[in-house]
Amino acid sequence: MRINKFLAQSGLASRRKAEEFVLAGKVKVNGKVVTSLATDVKETDSVVCDGKPLRVSNSFVYYKLNKPKGYVCTAADDKGRKTVVELMRGVKARIFPVGRLDYDSEGLLLLTNDGDLSNILTKPNSKVEKTYMVTIEGSISSAEIKTLSNGVDIGGYVTQPCSVQIIETKPNSTRLQFVITEGKNRQIRKMLEAVNKTVTLLKRVQIGEIRLGGLSRGEYAKLSAKELQYIRKLKSN
């Protein structure tokens, strides 16, 4: 199999992140550094990344986490910030987050050692819906809601059409629901900045058919049988 798929199935990271490790010269196959993404690897080969030996996992695990603010979505951070993996105490498998929630955002995050699933959920054409509850300062007009729904320029990129609804209005704030199928960096914050709104709370509550449910901040759980069935359906398409 290709080196990026091998690294993903070993539980190191998603295929996209695995490619970064290869291109950075951090991966050795049978003692030799490889930097070509076309490299083929056998399960019997010796594969090492940053000095850690890797093997293809024959047993995948799937968890959902209620990510608090103040954590980065990575297994390790070169700036010394707290990572979401640190919250997964008691999980012995080498797992990594699927996609991302920015440092100041919270809510539903999936973690797994299944690199193929990560690839499916994060590729641009996956069309998996992600639902967010967002609180902004002040009010928002119906015209601004329509603008956001149709797509806005967030810095050289125009977002795809999405669903934006007002859930609750208060004297000094408004609660919105966003349903998007993309995952650009800080996308919703940038969308709201485009219509001069300030976000005070951003929380993801659903990915496809997987819901955050009653998890407290920092709490995690294995996916249910129904959620695992959804994962299998995604992988079979």
Explain what you see.
This protein has 237 residues and is an alpha+beta fold. The protein folds into three domains: 3-54, RNA-binding S4 domain (Structural Genomics Hypothetical 15.5 Kd Protein In mrcA-pckA Intergenic Region, Chain A, Roll); 62-124 and 215-236, Alpha-Beta Plaits (2-Layer Sandwich); 130-207, Alpha-Beta Plaits (2-Layer Sandwich). The chain is built from six helices and 13 strands. It has helices spanning 3-9, 15-23, 115-122, 142-150, 187-194, 225-236, and strands at residues 27-29, 32-33, 47-49, 52-54, 62-67, 96-98, 106-112, 130-137, 163-169, 173-180, 199-207, 210-211, 220-222. Strands 5, 6, 7, 8, 9, 10, 11, 12 and 13 form a nine-stranded mixed β-sheet that branches. Strands 2-1-3-4 form a four-stranded antiparallel β-sheet, with no helix packed on it. β3 and β4 (52-54) form a beta hairpin. The longest helix is centred in the C-terminal third of the chain and has 12 residues, at 225-236. The mean pLDDT is 90.
